[in-house]
């Protein structure tokens, strides 16, 4: 019987945040105090995060999010794990919760029709339907829905330009999908803006489809942005569609190249992974900055000067002052803080 003690939470919420820096600090400190690890983006348009923690800590975290009226509608995709899926906590302020170059679009005002997993499953094979993967190359090359249309994009911000290639599909039913649903919110909104008539999105993305609909017809694995790198989705008719970048054998084992200057995301089988010491080429293997390979192919992102304890000392100082005032009041000592 499975008895995994940790949860991994994937979520997003489009909601206005006025003072992003203040909320970043509050949110960040809550994570520290409750041993939540992961990556969270705070922006004027909302929240986007993937975090991990013990089950009880994750329950507190979800309650914390839902207690804020701005984020009460947040839906969490929940998976279980035997350890933290992250080594650190990063809570950053950015202009968008997913870099899209589509800041003018507000999914709360207009977006594609949400399909629950079973609805998506029932609709996806109809003759007048096109299934559109809005993720990057390295993601859909590892795994995608059977018969899905993929786009040659390195980053989601390239999506608007690629839509020009889809003009002939404007009168079709277009079903968009991504990992957790967030990219589809703006991708489907942009398609509607460009004159597409009938646009849908898989609510909760591939992850929710796997959890609630068995993952049927999703071929390969789903790339995820934590130390698992790739996860199984299909429990009905699984199939490997990717091959090892080095030897060409069938492999769905995803690796980030050990050379940080390259850092390509590629399928590399375990044998080649060890032989190449985690690198995708001889040049990368011999690169002077190559990272040590431990067999996973996952490397913690560079913090770029990010201080995970920013604001914590300030709060501790405030708490010390409050405690000092309280103690001095109890002893009848007058302080400069008293009027």
Automatic annotation (TrEMBL):
Rhodanese domain sequence ranges: 125-218
GO biological process terms, semicolon-separated: tRNA modification
* Keyword check for Oxidoreductase: yes
Give yes or no: UniProt keyword tRNA processing: yes
In terms of CDD domains, this protein maps to: RHOD_YceA
Coiled-coil spans in chain? none
User: What is the enzyme's class at the highest EC level?
Assistant: oxidoreductase
Q: Which reaction does it catalyse?
A: uridine(34) in tRNA + AH2 + O2 = 5-hydroxyuridine(34) in tRNA + A + H2O
Q: Name one GO molecular function term.
A: oxidoreductase activity, acting on paired donors, with incorporation or reduction of molecular oxygen
Q: Where are the stretches annotated Disordered?
A: 310-339
What Enzyme Commission number(s) apply to this enzyme?
Answer: 1.14.-.-
- Kindly name one Pfam family recorded for this protein: Rhodanese_C
Which keywords belong to this entry? Oxidoreductase, tRNA processing
Q: Where is the composition biased (Basic and acidic residues)?
A: 314-339
Protein family (similarity comment): Belongs to the TrhO family.
Q: Which NCBIfam families match?
A: PRK00142.1-3
Q: What does this protein do?
A: Catalyzes oxygen-dependent 5-hydroxyuridine (ho5U) modification at position 34 in tRNAs.
Q: What is this protein called?
A: tRNA uridine(34) hydroxylase
* Gene name of the encoded protein: trhO
């Amino acid at each position: 019987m499975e008895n995994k003690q940790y949860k991994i939470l994937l979520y997003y919420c489009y909601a206005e945040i006025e003072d992003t820096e203040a909320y970043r600090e509050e949110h960040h400190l809550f994570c520290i105090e409750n041993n939540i690890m992961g990556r969270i983006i705070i922006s004027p348009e909302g929240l986007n995060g993937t975090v991990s923690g013990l089950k009880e800590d994750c329950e507190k975290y979800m309650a914390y999010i839902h207690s804020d009226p701005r984020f009460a509608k947040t839906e969490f995709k929940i998976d279980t794990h035997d350890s933290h899926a992250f080594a650190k906590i990063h809570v950053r302020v950015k202009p968008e919760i997913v870099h899209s170059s589509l800041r003018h679009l507000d999914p709360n005002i207009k977006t594609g029709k949400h399909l629950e997993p079973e609805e998506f499953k029932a609709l996806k094979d109809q003759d007048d339907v096109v299934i559109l993967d809005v993720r990057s190359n390295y993601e859909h090359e590892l795994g995608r829905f059977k018969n899905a249309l993929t786009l040659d994009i390195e980053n989601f911000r390239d999506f608007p330009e690629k839509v020009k290639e889809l003009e002939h599909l404007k009168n079709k039913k277009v079903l968009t999908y991504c990992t957790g649903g967030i990219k589809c919110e703006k991708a489907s909104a942009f398609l509607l803006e460009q004159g597409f008539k009938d646009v849908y999105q898989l609510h909760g993305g591939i992850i929710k489809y796997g959890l609630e609909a068995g993952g049927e017809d999703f071929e390969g694995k789903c790339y995820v942005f934590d130390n698992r790198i790739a996860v199984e989705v299909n429990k009905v008719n699984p199939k490997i569609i990717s091959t090892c970048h080095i030897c060409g054998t069938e492999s769905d084992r995803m690796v980030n190249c050990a050379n940080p200057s390259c850092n390509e995301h590629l399928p590399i089988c375990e044998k080649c992974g060890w032989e190449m010491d985690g690198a995708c080429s001889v040049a990368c293997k011999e690169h002077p900055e190559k990272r040590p390979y431990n067999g996973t192919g996952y490397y913690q992102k560079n913090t770029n000067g990010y201080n995970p304890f920013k604001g914590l000392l300030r709060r501790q100082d405030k708490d010390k002052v409050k405690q000092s005032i309280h103690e001095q009041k109890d002893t009848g000592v007058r302080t400069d803080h008293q009027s």
